[in-house]
Write a structure and sequence with these properties.
The complex is a heterodimer of chains A (207) and B (564). By secondary structure, chain A is an alpha/beta fold. Chain A contains 11 helices and 7 strands. The longest helix of chain A has 13 residues. In chain B, strands 10-9-8-11-12-13-14-15 form an 8-stranded mixed β-sheet, sandwiched between helices. A 5-stranded parallel β-sheet of chain B has the order 3-2-1-4-5, with helices on both faces. About 1% of the residues of chain B have low confidence. Classes of the chains: A alpha/beta (207), B alpha/beta (564). At the A-B interface, helix 11 of A face helix 2, helix 3 and helix 4 of B.
């Protein structure tokens, strides 16, 4: 299913299900401009969670701009990972989370650690086109604005979970969750908590 | 000692906080001072001296995270938590909030420190201020009019920095700014004479708020008239890089009229250095006016829309403020102009600005009265005085010798003593000197009559307060009886009606309003508030009376000295 081809620029590029996972012209150049776009406006300590390892060029570009510790990759195909690491031995040591079912991500320690940071979601287009359902679900989970994703995200944040009212959470609507929804689900005992007071500051930012 | 200073509003407010930073540095030379500001104003940081670390509040990123569906829900939370973690790790000894917004109040509550000054909300949302001055600021934000203190003064009095604080903004020129300004000077000196004989006059034509903008057409006419009076002047039209597209055509318009004008599109550091090299700044209500105050460059400020000169006017002695007499000005900051035309802007004639700027450039003041007289139906011309009275003040150059005028200054001096930042003797001396300065032709007999009348009013209140105190004693055990409390409140209403029209006592009216109109609070709370308000009035009346008597003695003495 996965083969290694050569792009016109001479760089190796992966092909999966007959589709290229990077530019067939110049994957290196394409990855550089993609990485520039992602890095633009990023906070000094923000993490980037990349959806899709692709051929690894874009991850290598991001690593060179941000450092390995600020890049986390989510991939659902272990074979892609082994092929890429064969092409790019320098990517060994990159935080790559391999899960075939997005629902298992919430139980993954490395994923939870990543969630506890300020992060930007960076979508690798070719990977997402080949596996749209998986990556769309992961994106939804990372955004956390529907009930299931929100609950999964809370698993990674026990400090917030502890100050919420379980009954109010249960009666939350399934539709888009916003800061206004959150205002109403803190427990009475959590009203004085540090977490609630941080939300209070954020509430003042809502115009 | 580690101190955190929060200034979470705009650039102008950060500049207004600089006297505090300088005062803290002077009072605590070994302290580590951190400054928290909004990240979108980070360009001001290089100019602010005496700060060991500047921390940025990522307001834009957090706001974006809260509002956009594609951004992770917890992103703003994590971002803010990271900031809070950082502040916790610093273990500050003192946190100072100069912002006075709900946001800063909640944030202040998250800073773990023993000493906090400025608005702070505890977990239940209860506000504390840590200083009577900052509590006063809380009431002042709501009130309108001239009976207020400049924010810079409230900060320096509230933090007990006293004379250790410089009187105006303090900024430090940077090498980058210097080179930017000098490069402008050298480019535009060729042919325009900026480094030649003509004075460089900076003009800031745009503001951040359309309500505060004077029309470009009027600016052009004013500059044209000004250049007729000062043909050698070189006009630098100041603007930020993002304003380039509006500034350049305007400069071309001026050039087509034969005016020596050039666009000065500069960053903040460059703008400050440019102002240091200018002889005058003509501006609306902008942060640039505060930079000019720091550069000690004379300022002519055009106050329009919601511009609140009495709280945030340029803190530079001798500055001139031109304020529209339009009935709706100043308006509310958060609301758009409700008029069909920008009436307050339309009302200010271009010639007034040109003539006032001409006076300011020549460091003259004697014509200001004549100009103000001629255009008194359109504008009010105010002069900034920050030396004599011991606090920032702005008064009309046509200030009449009236009960209202004298009462305003007397009441401000009284508040300053009451809030615990002044010595009575010093205030009396400063006040008498200041009043003589703004009313130089008033005779001793006029002072005697006015002050005697004030003393009578003060004594009347004093007597009334004694009556109220007796009433309070009687109420102590019976305030839960609504009939008795009602009877007492009726006597307060009668008293409020008596003082309503008194210039001297009208400031008591607002505290009386609060206790009279509070019919929601439980009886005990209401009773406590009445006791506190009466106590405050008693103290302030005593101060009023001692100021009036001291002032009367000073004025008598002054009149004897004036006699041959």
């Amino acid at each position: 299913l996965i083969s290694i081809e050569q792009a016109r620029s001479g760089h190796p590029v992966l092909k999966k299900h007959g589709r290229f996972l990077g530019s067939s012209f110049d994957p290196h150049k394409e990855a550089a401009s993609w990485a520039d776009r992602i890095v633009n406006g990023l906070g000094a300590h923000d993490l980037v969670i990349v959806l899709g390892l692709g051929c690894g060029y874009h991850v290598a570009e991001l690593r060179s701009r941000l450092g390995a510790e600020r890049v986390v990759v989510i991939e659902n195909d272990a074979e892609v990972v082994s092929q890429v690491l064969g092409i790019f031995p320098e990517l060994v040591g990159t935080q790559i989370i391999v899960e075939t079912d997005w629902l298992n991500l919430a139980a993954n320690d490395r994923f939870r650690d990543a969630l506890a940071n300020v992060f930007r979601i960076a979508i690798h287009g070719p990977s997402c086109q080949i596996e749209p359902d998986f990556f769309r679900s992961v994106e939804r989970l990372l955004i956390g604005r529907d009930k299931v994703s929100f609950l999964l995200q809370l698993k990674a944040r026990p400090d917030i979970w502890a100050v919420l009212d379980p009954q109010k959470i249960a009666s939350m609507p399934d539709e888009v969750i916003s800061i206004k929804t959150l205002q109403g689900i803190f427990s009475a005992s959590g009203a004085a908590s540090r977490e609630r007071r941080i939300w209070r500051v954020l509430e003042e930012l809502v115009v | 000692m580690k101190i955190l200073v929060m200034s979470l509003l705009r650039i102008g407010d950060i500049v207004l906080a600089t006297p505090v930073l300088a005062g803290l540095r002077r009072k605590f030379p070994d302290a580590e001072i951190h400054l928290l500001i909004n990240s979108q104003f980070r360009q001001i940081s290089p100019l602010v001296s005496g700060v060991d670390r500047t921390i940025y509040f990522e307001r834009d990123l957090m706001q974006k995270g809260l509002g956009e569906a594609g951004v992770p829900l917890f992103e703003p939370y994590e971002r803010l938590e990271e900031l809070v973690d950082g502040m916790e790790a610093e273990s500050y000894d003192w946190a100072i909030n100069l912002t006075h917004s709900r946001l800063s109040g909640w944030l202040m509550g998250l800073v773990p420190t023993k000493k906090k000054t400025g608005l702070c909300f505890d977990h239940s949302g209860r506000a504390s201020f840590g200083s009577s001055w900052f509590r006063f600021l809380n009431h002042q934000v709501e009130s309108e009019g001239r009976e207020t203190f400049h924010f810079t003064d409230i900060f320096r009095f509230g933090l007990e920095l006293g004379d250790a604080v410089s009187s105006g903004p303090v900024l430090e020129e940077t090498a980058r700014g210097k080179s930017e300004a000098e490069s402008w000077m050298s480019t535009n000196a060729q042919g325009s004479g900026a480094q030649g004989s003509g004075p460089l006059v900076a003009v800031q034509v745009l503001t951040s708020d359309p309500k505060k903008d004077w029309s470009l057409q009027k600016f052009a006419s004013a500059i044209e008239s000004f250049c007729r009076l000062n043909p050698s002047a070189v006009i630098g039209i100041l603007g930020a890089p993002f304003e380039r597209e509006r500034i350049l055509p305007f400069v071309e318009t001026l050039k087509s009229k034969g005016i020596k004008a050039e666009a000065a599109i500069l960053g903040f550091e460059g703008a400050y250095s440019f102002l240091k090299r200018s002889r005058l700044l003509i501006t609306g209500d902008t942060s640039i006016k505060h930079l000019a105050a720091a550069a000690k460059t004379p300022i002519v400020e055009i106050s329009l829309g919601s511009s609140d000169v009495y709280r945030t006017g340029s803190y530079l002695h001798g500055s001139v403020i031109i304020q529209s007499r339009e009935a709706c000005a100043p308006c509310v900051h958060s609301k758009a102009c409700h008029r069909a035309t920008h009436a307050c802007s339309d009302r200010i004639p271009a010639d007034v600005v040109a003539m006032v700027a001409n006076e300011a450039l020549g460091k003259r003041t004697h014509q200001l009265k004549t100009i103000a007289e001629e255009f008194k139906s359109e504008v009010e011309i105010l002069r900034v005085e920050s030396r004599t009275p011991g606090f920032w003040s702005a008064y009309s150059v046509l200030e009449p010798f009236s009960e209202e005028s004298v009462a305003r200054w007397l009441d401000l001096a009284c508040r300053k003593i009451w809030l615990g930042s002044a010595n009575r003797g010093t205030e009396i001396r400063r006040l008498s000197e200041f009043l003589r300065k703004i009313h130089p032709t008033t005779s001793a007999i006029e002072w005697r009559h006015l002050l005697a009348d004030f003393e009578r009013q003060g004594q009347l209140v004093d007597g009334k307060i004694n009556g109220f105190k007796v009433g309070i004693e009687y109420l102590k055990g019976t305030y839960e009886d609504p009939r008795r409390l009602g009877v007492f409140v009726r006597t307060l209403i009668q008293f409020r009606e008596r003082i309503r029209h008194s210039a001297l006592l009208k400031s008591f009216k607002s505290s009386m309003d609060q206790i009279i109109e509070d019919d929601i609070s439980p009886p005990f709370v209401r009773f406590r508030r009445i006791v506190d308000a009466i106590g405050e009035m008693e103290k302030r009346t005593q101060i009023h009376l001692s100021l009036i008597r001291g002032l009367a003695a000073e004025m008598e003495e002054g009149s004897h000295e004036a006699q041959p």
